[in-house]
Amino acid sequence: MQPAEWHLGLTTTCSPALLSVLCILVTQLWLGSSCPSVCICNASEADCSGRGLVSLPSLGLLPPSTHTLLLSNNRLSSLAPASFANLTALEHLDLSNNYLDKLPAGVFAQLPNLTALSLRNNSLTVLETELLQGLLQLRTLDLSLNGLSVVPVGLLDEQAGLRWLSLAGNRLHALERAAFEPLANLQHLELGNNPWECDCNLRDFKHWMEWLLYRGGYVDAVECTLPKDLRGRDIRGVPVEMFNYCLQLEDENGAGAGGTKGGSPPCNRATAAPPSEGIVTAGEAGLPDCVKQRYRPVSVRRAIGTVVIAGVVCGIVCIMMVAAAAYGCIYASLMAKYQRELKKRQPLMGDAEAETDPDDKQISSVA
Length: 367
Ligand SMILES: *[C@@H]1O[C@H](CO)[C@@H](O)[C@H](O)[C@H]1NC(C)=O
Ligand SMILES: *[C@@H]1O[C@H](CO)[C@@H](O)[C@H](O)[C@H]1NC(C)=O
Ligand SMILES: *[C@@H]1O[C@H](CO)[C@@H](O)[C@H](O)[C@H]1NC(C)=O
Ligand SMILES: *[C@@H]1O[C@H](CO)[C@@H](O)[C@H](O)[C@H]1NC(C)=O
Prior knowledge:
Layout: H1 3-13, H2 17-31, E1 40-41, E2 45-47, E3 68-70, E4 92-94, E5 116-118, E6 140-142, E7 164-166, H3 177-180, E8 188-190, E9 196-197, H4 200-214, E10 218-219, E11 224-226, H5 244-261, H6 269-272, H7 290-293, H8 298-366
Parallel strand pairs: 2-3, 3-4, 4-5, 5-6, 6-7, 7-8, 8-10, 9-11
Antiparallel strand pairs: 1-2
Bound molecules: 2-acetamido-2-deoxy-beta-D-glucopyranose (4 copies).
One 2-acetamido-2-deoxy-beta-D-glucopyranose (NAG) binds at residues 42-45.
């Protein structure tokens, strides 16, 4: 109802100044009192998109049957905690292309039937862990094109029903596996256009991602930015064995930290990471998951098996080669010896012949 909104809304919908009065009249006539004057409503949908709104219109007037509320392409930069109170039937909420930089923890708490939420292309840098609490029907969540650097552990804890999630185009360099484990029914995950650091911090998440793919889910390209030798590589194509050194790091660090912590499971992966400093992971909340995270997936176990078998085969081949070489040497030396003896004997036989020949001649001559 603010004059500023009025003005902005009207200039976008009815640009010629003369038409603006007509515009007001028409909207008033058609929509009655239950629709905010800047929006276009029918029984199930309220379209307040592209009106240049800097604050929310009074949504308490919306018909209680409203399923869809479009607030995209406005200039909203903040929302009051009770902004969406009483819209219990709402299923689709579109807040994309605004300037929201943070959201109060309980802002969506009164929307138990919400199935699709879009916060695409805002300025969000942090999300409250409680932001999605109570949204048990959520199927689609779009958080793309924001400034998020962390997905807090706990944010997605109630989202076992989520099917589609986009985190593309943020500032994520690592993700906690524990934050994503509740997503038992996820089918589509977008992670592209983030500055991923493909080091030990991403190893456990990679395992989770492989499990998602194994279930038939979809993940888009996850291109590494760091380390340098993996830049541009898709982490899905980086063999899991390349992260084996993490286990070593973890074990070394675990042995060191276990004594100081006294009883708590040794798990300092976040701090054990190689020189990639500046990674702030929400690790504290995930400590109980340490034991889970130490589980070695099939591929690692298979790799160890392969190494053992290869070692045994190599050993057998080596032994056979040594035996063959030894046999060759012995045979060669025996032959050499035999040859030498043969040579030694041959001249003797020649002498004997030479000695016998004259004898024969003598004998023959005598004869
Ligand atoms: C409400 O409007 C939207 C688009 O403006 C349309 O798709 C929908 O069918 C309409 N619903 C009703 C009940 O008129
Ligand atoms: C929401 O509903 C409650 C009662 O159910 C009412 O007291 C309150 O004023 C309503 N809030 C809004 C914003 O309409
Ligand atoms: C929420 O959804 C359920 C099941 O789809 C429906 O029975 C219920 O009426 C909805 N709540 C509101 C307030 O419309
Ligand atoms: C993001 O939002 C801004 C402002 O609302 C808009 O100008 C820009 O085109 C949007 N970008 C995309 C990719 O939607």
